[in-house]
Design brief:
With 298 residues, this protein is mainly alpha-helical. It folds into two domains: 122 residues; 175 residues, no CATH class. The N terminus is likely disordered.
Length: 298
């Protein structure tokens, strides 16, 4: 793993053109992302097997005359499986760090190329493509792991004793840290999405003014590109649908009323304005929740 990080540190100083650096980083990001998905699926499968084994162990224990030999075999198998799971978790942690490092380098490379295109009034199609790719680097959303209902019930002033207060205080701080991270991700996603939509509208206006068939080929080339994970570009639109479902799930956890109805089109994406509205609603709801937690910690 150390060799991977040494390579990452060397990439920014290599005497390669920016486009070449981007291509190299995209391949590396796609590779580590694919490895991460494989390991995540493998870990999920192992956890399911372990859950079944634990359930079987509990059932065997509850029998009036448990089979000791079978029970010992199950327990030994579960211990071995737990060790494999721990190793998978370490592997996932390493891959996650590597992916984050490559993501940061790629984000900086995209930003540098975007700034260059803006400065030199470069190809609007290339500018849109790079901005969409940069948006796809925004981390995915996960549900809140600290129960909002439990968080709202906590009252540090009513703690039974010092230990009870310490446990509850720790729970609140971890919940606050999680929400703060989610808010940062959401804000980045909103800002990047607004820029993508602005550029798409600008491109549309440009093509309508040009009124030439050859100009429309620019859009074709943009849509025919690939994103950093190797998916057809339009990945932004498809990933926005998945992002929208995640946001609605978070809003449900927060018991937000008047939830938006997520109805992706047959192509698998929402309209731009609807998606921006959902981003803003989720961001505002999480910010309110963050303030509630912070107030409890005062």
């Amino acid at each position: 793993m150390r060799s991977h990080f040494l390579l990452l540190l060397l990439i920014p100083i290599l005497p390669l053109p920016l486009n070449a650096q981007i291509g190299t980083l995209e391949k590396q990001y796609a590779k580590v992302s694919a490895s991460l998905r494989i390991e995540e699926r493998a870990l999920d499968s192992l956890n399911q097997v372990l859950h079944r084994q634990v359930t079987e162990i509990e059932k065997e224990k509850q029998r009036s005359n448990p089979d000791r030999t079978h029970l010992e075999q199950l327990m030994a198998s579960s211990v071995a499986l737990s060790n494999v799971i721990k190793e998978k978790q370490r592997r996932l942690s390493d891959l996650g760090e590597e992916q984050g490092s490559v993501r940061n380098l790629l984000d900086r490379a995209y930003s540098a190329e975007i700034d260059l295109l803006k400065k030199n009034a470069g190809d609007p199609g290339a500018l849109l493509l790079l901005t969409e790719k940069r948006l796809l680097l925004v981390p995915s959303l996960r549900n809140l792991s600290y129960d909002p209902a439990k968080v709202r019930e906590i009252d540090l002033t009513a703690a039974a004793d010092a230990l009870d207060r310490s446990v509850k205080n720790d729970y609140l701080r971890k919940a606050l840290e999680e929400v703060t991270g989610l808010l940062e991700t959401l804000r980045t996603a909103r800002i990047e999405t607004e820029e993508v939509l602005r550029l798409r509208n600008k491109m549309k206006d440009f093509l309508e003014e040009a009124g030439e068939q050859s100009s429309f080929n620019v859009v074709g080339s943009v849509r025919a590109g690939t994103d950093v994970s190797g998916s057809p570009l339009g990945g932004f639109d498809h990933s926005s649908a998945g992002y929208a479902v995640s946001m609605v799930s978070i809003l449900q956890q927060l018991h937000v009323t008047s939830l938006p109805s997520i109805r992706p089109s047959i192509q698998g994406y929402l309209s731009g304005p609807d998606y921006i509205d959902l981003l803003k609603k989720t961001e505002a709801s999480l910010e309110l929740y963050r303030r509630q937690i912070a107030k409890k910690l005062e």
